[in-house]
Each structure stands twice: as C-alpha cells, then as structure tokens.
Amino acid sequence: MKLSRRILGAAASLCLMALSANALSDTLDTIKQRKKVLIAVDIGAPPYGFLDSAAKQAGSDIEAARLLAKDLGVELEVVPVSGPNRVPFLLSKKADLVMASFSITDERKKVIGFSDPYGVVPIVVAGPKAATLKGFGDLAGKNVAVTRGTTSDQELSRGVKEVPGATITRYEDDATTNTAVATGQQDYLAAAPSVIPAVRKANPSRDIEIKFVMKSFPYGVGLRKDDTALKAWVDNWVKTNLKNGQLNTIYKTHFGMPLPEEFLK
C-alpha cells in the first residue's frame, strides 16, 4: 500500500513537472505553431512608433519588431497600444511581447518580465525657452503635462512630491499629451526627448526645449514572467543583433546617435 502511494506520488510529481515545462515553453511554441508573433507597439510615440506620410507604421520599435519576427521565422502582427495599457495587454495575452519604448523599472518587474535591454531612453522635463528650470524644485507653482502610467509619470510624481504648488495633468496617450503642449494648453512637459521635435513640428511657434534630465532608463522587450523559453530566445536575439550591429543601425537611424558603448561590447 505504501509502495503504491509512493509510485502514485512520484507519477503525480512527474506530471506536474511535465506541465510546468510545457507552461514555460507554451508562448514560444504557440508563436511558432500559429506562425505569427503578436508584438505590442505604441504607434503614437515617435520616433519609437508612428505613422509615416503614407500612413504606414514606422519607427525604431516597428523596425526592431520586424527584425525579431523575421529572425524568428514568423509573420509580424503589430498590436497598437498606448503607454498605460502596455502591461494590461501583455498580461491579458492580447500580445506575446511588448516593444514600445518599454523602460525597465523595478515597479514593472514586479508584475512582468523583460529581456536584456536593446536601447536606452532618458526622461526629461521640457518647457519654454525663456523659463529657468534646472531641477524639480523649479517646478513650484507650475503645471506639467505627462502621459499616464509611463516612466515619465512615475519619475515626475516622485520628483515633485515635496515641491509646493507643483501639479501634474495626466493624459491617456502621448499623442494627446503632445497636442496639449503644442496647442498651448500646457507649457511644461515630462517625456522622452524624442517627443520635443514632434511638439515643435506640430506647432513651430512653440519654443519648447529640454530643461533637465529626470532619469535615464534602458528599455527592453516586455514579456510575461513565466515565459522562460521565450525570454531565453529573445535575450539571445538581443545579444546577436547588438553584436552584428543591426539594432545599433536602427537606433542611429531614428535617434541620430549610436547606442551607448556598453551595449555594443
């Protein structure tokens, strides 16, 4: 009787191990079986993602996503997202991966996983050329626009927490945030540096410029925590395409500068 229980227990353990192994490789297997990878990209956040003059998807993350799908040997389906819904889309399995200027932060790592970084983005505060802003303290009495749920939102919230009179107006996506600043509804903006040229292009009369850097973040491919096999594949993809220069070429094309030297070693 005891022996039978031991055999049954061992069999149950093996079954659980098999199920666990299948779960770990499930998303990668699913992608290969469907012959398509679903990658979430924010196409309202140039130069990471945007629609070009022919209304075609373009940007550094779009190009990187195309390269990833090509190397994986599957079709790419871009799943449009905004800053606030990148994590929900991933967790609800509306996307297999997220490539949307997705900064690697401790807060996000509590709920999702990340690949090794394939780019870097500083987060800045911008304002009128005539304004003197050297740090968070100079935002006293000022209202700052930011896209909800982004790293810009997180760092701005921390920075102005003890600053008297500093207020934050949160918008639901980058396009709306940019429009608020371009049209003069807001004079101050917390965002990635790449946003500033877009604001100027929308309204050349706006003299918005970068005032100070809040923080710099590496960004990676977002994936679910239990997708171990997929993470291993993506990490190897990042390493390979940093080494062969393809990711650096994409970055230079859209940002006008190379990736940091430590990325390319």
UniProtKB/TrEMBL annotation:
<feature type="signal peptide">
    <location>
        <begin position="1"/>
        <end position="23"/>
    </location>
</feature>
<feature type="domain" description="Solute-binding protein family 3/N-terminal">
    <location>
        <begin position="36"/>
        <end position="258"/>
    </location>
</feature>
<protein>
    <submittedName>
        <fullName>Polar amino acid transport system substrate-binding protein</fullName>
    </submittedName>
</protein>
<dbReference type="Pfam" id="PF00497">
    <property type="entry name" value="SBP_bac_3"/>
</dbReference>
<dbReference type="InterPro" id="IPR001638">
    <property type="entry name" value="Solute-binding_3/MltF_N"/>
</dbReference>
<keyword id="KW-0732">Signal</keyword>
